[in-house]
Amino acid sequence: MLNLNDPTLLREAVPVGTKWIAADPATGTPVYNPSTGDLVGYVPNLGANKTEEAIAVADKTRRDWAAQTAKARSKVIRRWYELLVENQDDLAAILTAEQGKPFAEAKGEIAYGAGFLEWFAEEARRAYGETIPAPIADRRIVVIKQPVGVVAAITPWNFPNAMITRKAGPALAAGCAMVLKPAPQTPFSAIALAVLAERAGLPSGLLSIITGDAAEIGGVMTASPTVRKLTFTGSTGVGSLLYGQCAPTVKKLGLELGGNAPFIVFDDADLDLAAEGALWSKFRNNGQTCVCANRIYVQAGVYDAFADKFAEKVNSLEVADGFAPGAQIGPLIDDNAVAKVERHVADAVGKGASIVTGGAKHDLGGKFFQPTILRDATAEMVFASEEIFGPVAPLFKFETEAEVIAAANDTEYGLAAYFYTKDMARSWRVSEALDYGMVGVNAGVIATHEAPFGGVKMSGLGREGARQGLDEFMEEKYICMADV
Ligand code: ADP
């Protein structure tokens, strides 16, 4: 069992409407630690009825919440943020137990996740409208912002805390209610958030969590006319399916989908900085983020030098159980993820790539895979077009700026891109030429509360975090005031 300061944070129950529903081990869904295979606990196996109930209660409670002042809502969300910070170690331990990422990295995620609550508690009070000069003398044009209403959220397992706070923070700050379906692999991080939301004084019924069959729950969420917005983070396949399911009720949509991030190292780059940036851009969360470098393009003149520097850093990564001191790389989430990276490596080697380091399962066994670098990657290899989502770094060689921009953009995705150069003119030129929602120039990890996160093309719709993140949960209403 996990050794928590506050064991009540690991709760085998979910809040639905105004009640908590406890898991029955006979019918509930087990959650296992991906590192050890140990049972973490059970969550209830719920379906259509409870989803409908949660939506109905959300619709009842949201109006009183929206009628409160922005400052009153802000205070609750601020308190929620403080409780996350106060319970950082316990929340991180729950996260490591169910997701596998190293404890230090899990603590980092809790701080990052809490930061969205802090940011949106602040932004709640800045939902400014506008006044517009009217074309008729006795009229006034006023635009106000109002909450969209009931929001459904579906979240992934790679950031079990932060992907929820990045949605629930702005939704609740705006005055919405939320019904959340967390990933089946990581429900306990979501539940712990709800326990703390209750303690922070969030009115009952505003945040429900439904665990159970994804397609059934998602089906009710998307079909419901009461739900006015769906916010989803996950794969492009599921995202586009949900997009279609939302069409009949014309919902607002926020979709944070897959990526295929290019990471470009030009001849004039600071190679030490680039190797360090590539290390964290690629291997953070064991390569399991949608903004992880997927294709590393290195200009011919520095290809060998970069490969050497990068390999030295990758070889020093500590692969271990997430609770082991000094762990930097944990297990992959499940056996399918391991099979996928094995398939990517075999495909590349079969087409002429060579292994610089790694390339196989780790001696630790189970879901552990060696941090891997491949040389001589080409556009014919599967990872050129498919997200790896694991610890495999393919190095592609290029000659000219025009060639690498074309290669970088030659994908259906458009989430994050990175490049390293010391040339100022090139920095602007390449930033503008990349068809991506986010670009890191001499920076390999760029997500932050203050900046709008999101993609173009098949990587999704809308932005999260930043000022824009609040707008996503609000509608603008135009009021025309005429004199009587
Ligand atoms: P991954 O392959 O990384 O798990 P998914 O897109 O499958 O990514 O999962 C992201 C979230 O979407 C999870 O909460 C998952 O349970 C949910 N999900 C998967 N399939 C469906 C579906 N058909 N309807 C609704 N939600 C789904």
From TrEMBL:
Active site feature: 256
Record family assignment: Belongs to the aldehyde dehydrogenase family.
GO biological process, one term: gamma-aminobutyric acid catabolic process
Gene Ontology MF term list: succinate-semialdehyde dehydrogenase (NAD+) activity
Keyword Oxidoreductase applies: yes
Any Pfam family hit: Aldedh
Alphabetical list of CDD domains matching this protein: ALDH_F5_SSADH_GabD (cd07103)
Protein's UniProt keywords contain Protease: no
Domain Aldehyde dehydrogenase: 20-478
InterPro entries: Ald_DH/histidinol_DH, Ald_DH_C, Ald_DH_CS_CYS, Ald_DH_CS_GLU, Ald_DH_N, Aldehyde_DH_dom, Aldehyde_DH_Superfamily, Succ_semiAld_DH
CC per GO annotation: cytosol
NCBIfam families according to UniProt: SSADH (TIGR01780)
Protein name, entry field: Succinate-semialdehyde dehydrogenase / glutarate-semialdehyde dehydrogenase
Organism in which the protein naturally occurs: Cognatishimia maritima
Source taxon at top rank: Bacteria
Keywords, sorted A to Z: Oxidoreductase
